Each structure stands twice: as C-alpha cells, then as structure tokens.
Amino acid sequence: MPLTVRIITPSGTLWDAPAQAAILPSKTGEMGILAGHVAVTTALDVGVIRLQANGKWIPICIMGGFAQVEGDEVTILVHGAERGDQIDIKEAQGALEQAEDKLSQAQSTEEKLRAKVWVKQARARLKASQASNYSQQKPGLVENPVSDKYS
User: How many CB atoms lie within 10 A of CB 122?
Assistant: First the structure.
C-alpha cells in the first residue's frame, strides 16, 4: 500500500499524490519513510525531498518546514517548495555563485548569517535541478539520483 504524500506551501499544494517512498531532509539528517512507518512529527531543514512515484524519483526543493507521518499519510508543511524539473540548472548555478560571492563579501555577523542561508537555499535548488535532470536522462531509474556534489 503506497503512502499518500501532501506537500503544502503558503501559496498552495505542490504535491498531493501517492508515493512508494519519501526521503525527507529533517533537522537531524535524512529520514526515509515507507508504508507502515511509525507516527512521527519532525522539523525539516532547507534541502531536497525525494519522492519515489511510478518507478522514478522526483526531487522537490524545500525551504524548511515540518512533516507529520501518521498511518500511511505524510503531510509536509513548508515555507516554500519547487519541483526539481521546474528549476533551470544554469539559473540555479548562477544563483549559487551569487550567494557564494555575497558570503565572501559579507562583513557583519548578520550579513554572514544571511548569506549562509542564501547559499544553503541555492545549493538545495541546484541539487534538486541536477537530480531531476539526471532522472530524465535515465528513464525508469529507481536508484537514488541525488548527487552530493553540492551538499
């Protein structure tokens, strides 16, 4: 029996469909969810959710939030989310370069903290877009496609 996964953002529902598995970027590390998982609520970090649906992995970049698993239902409330297949890789690479430049030029503690958040968000977007591009090049791939190059 598959999971029912819902990803909800302030602007609406990004995903509401069955999935065989979900890998979530929790604050304490990645958390794998399969049918029959114990009930849990966890804080999510900025990162990439990976959903296995219809025999392939779908990467979704999130900007932090919370997940609740109860029965075979996974409800994910996030500050923002974007499917990896809708992120332009070149734009994501450019955004990461800009964020890294801001970090290297940051003077105050506040500027450094803000820049670190931007770098983390940009890396998550790039990772999701790369994972989506990888799975499109290899149709039917059921391995975990996410590269750790930008982790």
Answer: 23
According to the model, what pLDDT value does residue 60 have?
97
Measured CA to CA, the distance from residue 72 to residue 36 in angstroms comes to 6
pTM, rounded to two decimals:
0.85
The CATH number assigned to the domain with range 3-86 reads 2.60.15.10
Q: What is the pLDDT of residue 134?
A: 63
Q: How far is CA 8 from CA 59, 62, 75, 108, 144, in A?
A: 15, 10, 8, 35, 23
Low-confidence spans in the chain with pLDDT less than 50: 138-151
Structure tokens at 94: 């450019």
What is the C-alpha separation between 62 and 25, in angstroms, rounded?
9
